[in-house]
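Worked Example 4.2. Consider the chain below.
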Amino acid sequence: MSGCDILTGTEIPCPPSWAENPEYQGMDSYFGGTPPLSKAIGYLVVVGFGALFSVFTTAVVYMDKIFSGNATVTSEHFNTAGRMVKTGLTASVIVSQWTWAATLLQSSNVAWNYGVSGPFWYASGATIQVLLFGVLAISLKDIAPSAHTMCEIVRARWGKSAHITFLIFAFLANIIVTSMLLLGGAATVEALTGVNYELASFLIPWGVILYTSAGGLKATFMASYLHTMIIFAVLITMITIVYIQVYSSDQIYDFLNQTVSYSSEECQVLFSTDGTVESSFYYDDNNKKQYACGAVPNNNSGSYLTMLSADGLMFGIINIVGNFGTVFVDQSYWQSAIAARPESAAKGYLLGGICWFAIPFSLATSLGLASTALMLPISSSEAGNGLVPPAVADHLLGEAGSALVLIMLFMAIVSTGSAESIAVSSLVA
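Applying the procedure from the previous section yields the following structure tokens:
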């Protein structure tokens, strides 16, 4: 089958990805329930990378002890990294611990749903809190320079009852964030490789636990720097492939306009088994569209390229409000401010917030918008499960693309996981 055979005898334009890969015709989902990668690759990433980073980070911490002349690590140094971390390392750890699995996967899902407004509201709605925390970091260094946790500050100011209340909030925040990371990450690992998600949930934390327990907060900072570097390397690779190597911004723009130009009837013909409305699977049982085709509901002119999106704005408001609790009650962010030098704390948070903005916005406006521009047969359930980035990467690069997304996802899980581990450790201590 070559070209768009399903459209023979009609005047419906052929979707860009279908012209490249005719096998997309008649497909009701991109992956079809079959993982794009083998289980061997899944275990290699989850176990192999975990062991590699554990050994590497532990070795770096050990060498640091030797060359700095500090052979013994006290409890103070374990939880505060000596309070002498500079601006660049502070910024990298902020980027690392704020990059969740959802940052990489759901940012592209909102681009698939709402267009360009989705990535903007996802990124800006989670950057505001980090930038404002930079102001708080200045006060922290000025008022409580020897503090270890936010709960210590609360106890000194408001007493034991408030201390217990905030301690419960802090533990709940850490538990919820860690659960989201593990369960969401493991579910995606299962979707990409077929590795059982319960087994993946068990295996992923071990590498983190080993190097965090060996080196404390300093090990977390060192590992986070490396994780952030890998995430940005994959990100730049994807942007380059989408907008420079394979397509251009002009092509993506034209493809997006073509996507919204299809009528409802034409979309039903496109997403059907034999090119007829009767055999269409475009709508589900609740009459909701399942694929990126046609005008975007509640967007100005139905365009993917508008900021005037009612649903996108609603998502942005929810995102902004919800993330305030996630940042200000999470001990890991206080920990980074405590570890930073007084002159580096605010600068590190401002730089980290600006750098973090680039990750969800760039990834979603490249892979996320490319999925709708190319009209890949990604179903709404696949998009909701965070499979938009691996689907586009698989389309562009084959198995190598899916593997790159998997590695980037693993980096996001373990980097935030190590920060949460040391946060809980300091709260208990």
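The radius of gyration is 23 Å. The chain has 17 helices and no strands. Compare this with Example 4.1 before moving on.
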